[in-house]
Amino acid sequence: RVPMDAWRQWIRHRTASVNEASSRYSIVTNSGQRTAPALWRRQAGDNKQGSAGCFDEAEGAQFSDQEREVHELTRRIYEHRIEQGVAREQARKDLPLCTYTEAYWKIDLHNLLHFLALRLDSHAQQEIREYAAVIGEQIVAKWVPSTWEAFLDYRFNATGLSRIESEILAAVGAGDVARANTIARESGWLEPGKNGLKTHREREEFANKLREWNLGVPWETDASAR
Length: 226
Fold this sequence. Notes:
- 51% of the residues lie in helices and 10% in strands.
- A hairpin with a 2-residue loop joins β7 and β8 (196-197).
- The longest helix is centred in the N-terminal third of the chain and has 27 residues, at 57-83.
- By secondary structure, it is mainly alpha-helical.
């Protein structure tokens, strides 16, 4: 059972067979995913698809109240349409994305691990990450523990580098900050903005990797790069 907004992302993985309950033939379950006041997330500034931080509980309480009102209103409308004889396939059209759908999902282990690598990633939506965590920790880890351990060590928790990142890292390792910044600039990472450098997701992600390795970030240590 998954809310529709998460299911839309889930179903994009074409390597599984799916048998989903149809709301054209059956009454939609009267349940939807609800958000606690402290769990309303703010829009991320550097990732249009992501979130960053949460509203405080007082602000979130307003959103939760609005959410409850929407749930109750759309359910009343749906049930009224059904009672009046509106076709189920049409009566459902205004139900919110929080509405749960139910499905059987069958996938092989190779493709399941690929699914988990994507949906456990910090860039994935929080709601689907929680489902992926349950699948990984409560099913895969107990079913094939050695495979799960290898997946964590060699794929999920491993750090990959692009060609540009490898070249910059080599320059940093050689102590050649100027060369590192030249590579970054030629790759479009250091374009000037109104207040410093323009936002660049790949640059910021690589900077975080350097910090984790206790290495200096070349465009932060060389003022001429900013």
